[in-house]
């Protein structure tokens, strides 16, 4: 029986072992654990990669979202528009500031925040926080125009979108990270750019905003023992920065390989059962953090693939508006029908740069076998 994991972090480490081991050893030899030189070096490299002026390393993707919203002045009484089809951290970060989430329905094909729905629900919103879910960028021009009309900022949850590209209406290509006021990235180990623990970054083209986030992540410091504002212990760990700096060097190529794998899956699975492969969106160029299939037989397909050694996962089975931790918002099943139908139909296949074409064929064969026996 095959054993194909959803992601293979060991295969990834094997590729980078020499560089990572040396980079970590240098940090340890210098005992430069907090705000060591590797942090600034990685920040410069990641800003260049993301085509923005500033990247501020922080402790996690959740911290990136939280600090960016605090820096944007979001607080108690404010309303932040965001999707319910996301990882819980997007919404938790809103709650940490004291603000309230307003959930916006998604496009039924892409799973991304629907600009028309945002427009209908924009009254009273103080900030829009769309999510580039599964690595596919939201329609930034459409959402950006609504924000501009309302006179409110846009912050991207780019936790899954390192190196995803957006083609604007005028044909210019922009990378996720610099479109709005800021973007928030996660370097959780399984993300396309993954650390050896928790890590994240806020990117922006606004110098004052970058300075504020940098201060907030480090106890509000202006100098070692002068604290201008209340901050947080949310710095990017130097050891993580050293790891990330090495792995960033192959990220564009790694994302390209993921796109190649996605193309193979979509070609080989076209017309199989009732499967719907990810939609073609020529202006929204995914880094394929997830490869998401949709089917009316999701639960049975998921169980069959797991029994047959294919590491599939549901990203994400319970939308945030139906999470027990958000019961106090008063949502019930049926309140967000498009989001709920989407969550009930999705399953993610294994995808990572080291996945071989033979492994792709094994996954495809298992999916086909399921539809042959039903
Ligand atoms: C991973 C993720 C986060 C949180 O990042 P952490 O580094 O785990 O804190 C936030 N939003 C989305 C969409 C994510 O996928």
TrEMBL record:
Cited SUPFAM superfamilies: PLP-dependent transferases
Record keywords, A-Z: Aminotransferase, Pyridoxal phosphate, Transferase
Pfam family, one: DegT_DnrJ_EryC1
One function term, GO molecular function aspect: transaminase activity
InterPro entries: DegT/StrS_aminotransferase (IPR000653), PyrdxlP-dep_Trfase (IPR015424), PyrdxlP-dep_Trfase_major (IPR015421), PyrdxlP-dep_Trfase_small (IPR015422)
Tagged with keyword Transmembrane: no
Residues annotated as signal peptide: none
UniProt similarity note: Belongs to the DegT/DnrJ/EryC1 family.
The name this protein goes by in its record: DegT/DnrJ/EryC1/StrS family aminotransferase
Organism: Fodinicola feengrottensis
Classification of source organism: Bacteria, Bacillati, Actinomycetota, Actinomycetes, Mycobacteriales
